[in-house]
Each structure stands twice: as C-alpha cells, then as structure tokens.
Amino acid sequence: MLVTAAIPCEDGHAQERSLTADLLAHVEAGDCLMADRNFCTTPILFGIAERHAVSVIREHAHLPWSPVGARTAQGRIPTGQVFEQAIVVEGADGAKLPARRITLVLDTPTRDGDSELHLITTIPAERASAAAVAQAYAARWRIETAFGHMASWLESEIETLGYPRAALLGFCVGVMAYNTLSVVQGALRAVHGETVVQEEVSGYHLVHQARADVGGLDTLLEDKDWEPFRRMPVAELAELLVEIVRHIPLPTIKKAKRGPKNPVPKRTRFKNPSRLDRSSRPRHSTRRGRAHQPR
Asked: Which of 45, 216, 274, 281 suits 76 as a labelling partner, its CA being 20 to 30 A distant?
C-alpha cells in the first residue's frame, strides 16, 4: 500500500500510455508488475521483459498474439474456473515474447458484464501456477484505492491550485502523507492482524488525530530531535513503530458502523408515468411577461 514512484505530467489530457518510456525507467530486474488492460501494449510487455522483470497484465483486445498450445483447465479459485494457454506475443520487427494467457471464467459477471478475464503473464509456470496468478490479480491493490483514500481522508486535491505545477506539487505532498498513513497501518496490521485493521480501523480517524496532535509536536520537538529516526536502520525503525502502535487504543480509531438502510417506500402515485398523454397537456410560453396559449 505504498506509492513508490510518481510520474508528473502537466498535460491533463495526456493518455497514460504516452508516458511509457518514463514508466519503464522505474522497472528494475526482478520486479513483478501488475496492471489493467490499458497498459497491455507490446512496448510495455517487451520493455518489462527486456529489463529482466515479469508482468501480469489484463489482456487488451488489440494485443497481437498467437497460440502455441491448447487451452487447458487449471483448477478453481473462489471466483471461478481457471484455464491456461501458452502463447507468443508478436512485437514490432517480428519480435516474439513467450507468455501465458490465463483465463478466469467467472461464476458471477463483473459490473461491466464480463464473464471471463484474460491475463497475459510472463511469469514462468514453475514460479507461479495459473491459479496463483489469477488469485493474485483478483486481490491486487489498486492505485484507484489510494486515490480514493487520499481524496476522502487527506483532502489532497486543492481545487484552487490552478497552475499545473502547483497542483502536481500539492498532489505529491498528499502522496507522501498517504505513504505515512500506510506505514502506520502496516504497523497496526503487524500487531492486530490484517482482518482487524481492514474491518475495524478507520483511516479517517487516524488522520484526524494526527492533525489534532501535529501542532503540539511542533511545539515540543525541533528538527534535530528527528535526526536519530532519519538515520535509524529500516528494521530497527519498524520494530520501534510496532512497539509504539501497541499503545494506540483501538476504540479511538474504530470505524463507525452504519446501521441497516431503511427500505425504500413503495410508490403510490404516478406508478406508470408513461401512460400520461403529455401531448394532451396545454403548453405555455412566456413572452414579455404574458402567457400565450399556442394554437
């Protein structure tokens, strides 16, 4: 749940794939990138492979590929049946990239009505089974989730920042604040477990308490007081954070559970408005303050 890189772009109408070169510059050997079908292009797939990394990307309809073997069943995951097929992705100048096409036949269609999900992955079969890849993609952390939390918890988008560079600066400051919150949530998960933090801990209340206490910390501490933490090894800092969050009383940051929604009352009037003959209603037009009945 950390944003490790940001690619600022001042053009608000730019397509994300126009920044492919900047995106690939952040890929390191051994990385595993997971992305939606908007990033399922041959430059991205080949670029990731050239950097000795692997990917799991949902298939785009225009991706050129050819089958190598037949599709075979690979078991089930909680959301549906898994199939796998060996393919070759066809790039420019006749380049070919061996890959696996993993299909998840869903028990329940998505909101868009899709009954099957097709994933293109370059992870070798001996490193991850088709079912493991499909399960990982279904449970992936989405950047839209981070954007939603930043908007609702941190109010990171300041509408009055009209200049693109000012807006990007404000957004990136919000990203840093979000990462700080993610580290706190990670320490809480280490103490209380994933389920408790996900279902009971409110990110909004965490941010609210931080806002209330930051003024007092600025009064009591100076910049030099934070220096030991900046130089502290990561493992040691993690142990310290875990010890600190043990003293946070969970009831003070607990989510507010809303009660059941009231049932929508049944309509008693105008149940079938289509039966009303709108053409039979008199229409009025106003001209110079006087109403005239059209002929």
From this structure: 45
3-state SS class at 19? helix
Q: CA angle, 72 as apex, 67 and 76 as ends, to 5°? A: 130
Count of other CB atoms within 10 angstroms of residue 214: 10
Q: Give dist(CA 152, CA 155) in Å, integer.
A: 6
Choose the final residue of a domain: 121, 140, 159: 140
pTM of the model: 0.72
Strand pairing report for 96-106 and 116-121: antiparallel
Domain total for the chain?
A: 2
For 107, left (φ over 0), alpha (ψ -120 to 50), or beta?
Answer: alpha
User: DSSP H helical segments within 193-248, as ranges?
Assistant: 194-200, 203-220, 227-231, 234-245
Q: Is residue 8 part of a domain?
A: no
**Structural domain harbouring 227:** 144-253
Cα separation, 32 vs 93, whole angstroms: 26
Residue 114 falls inside a structural domain: yes
